[in-house]
Design goal:
Elements (H helix, E strand, L loop, with lengths): L1 H24 L5 H6 L13 H28 L11 H4 L26 H9 L1
C-alpha cells in the first residue's frame, strides 16, 4: 500500500510541475493584440491559434490528473480502503472520566493536598 501511495505522490508532483510549466509557456490575453501586429506568433510550431488550444487542453488534463491524485492521497492517508458504517474519530476516542476531588483543597488549582495517613499509622504515632 505504501508503494501505491508513493506512486500517486510522484504522479502528483510531476503533474504539478507540468501545470507550472504549461501556465508559464502560455500567452496571456494581452498577447493577442501584439500577435496581430506581427510579433511572430503565427510562425510558431502549432500555428497562430493551435498552440493556445493544445496548451490549454494539456493544462486541463494535467490539472485533472493533479486533482485526482490529491483525492487519491487523501483517501490513502485515511489508512483504510473502505468506510465502515459511522466510524469517526469521535467514536474511536478514548473516554476518560475526571477523578472526583478528595477534598475541597483538591478542587483549587495548584493546591497541594497532603497524602492520606492510614488509621493504623496514626494510632501508632499517637501511642509513642
Amino acid at each position: 500500500m505504501q508503494f501505491f501511495a508513493n506512486l500517486v505522490l510522484i504522479v502528483q508532483l510531476l503533474s504539478a510541475l507540468a501545470i507550472i510549466g504549461l501556465v508559464l509557456v502560455q500567452h496571456g490575453k494581452g498577447a493577442d493584440m501584439g500577435a496581430s501586429f506581427g510579433s511572430g506568433a503565427s510562425g510558431s510550431l502549432f500555428g497562430a491559434t493551435g498552440s493556445a488550444n493544445f496548451l490549454s487542453r494539456t493544462t486541463a488534463v494535467a490539472a485533472t490528473l493533479f486533482f485526482g491524485c490529491t483525492l487519491g492521497l487523501a483517501f490513502l492517508s485515511n489508512g483504510r480502503t473502505a468506510t465502515s458504517g459511522s466510524d469517526s474519530a469521535l467514536d474511536r476516542a478514548p473516554v476518560t472520566a475526571p477523578a472526583p476531588a478528595a477534598s475541597g483543597a483538591a478542587a483549587i488549582p495548584g493546591a497541594v493536598v497532603a497524602p492520606a495517613v492510614p488509621a493504623s499509622v496514626a494510632a501508632s504515632a499517637t501511642a509513642n
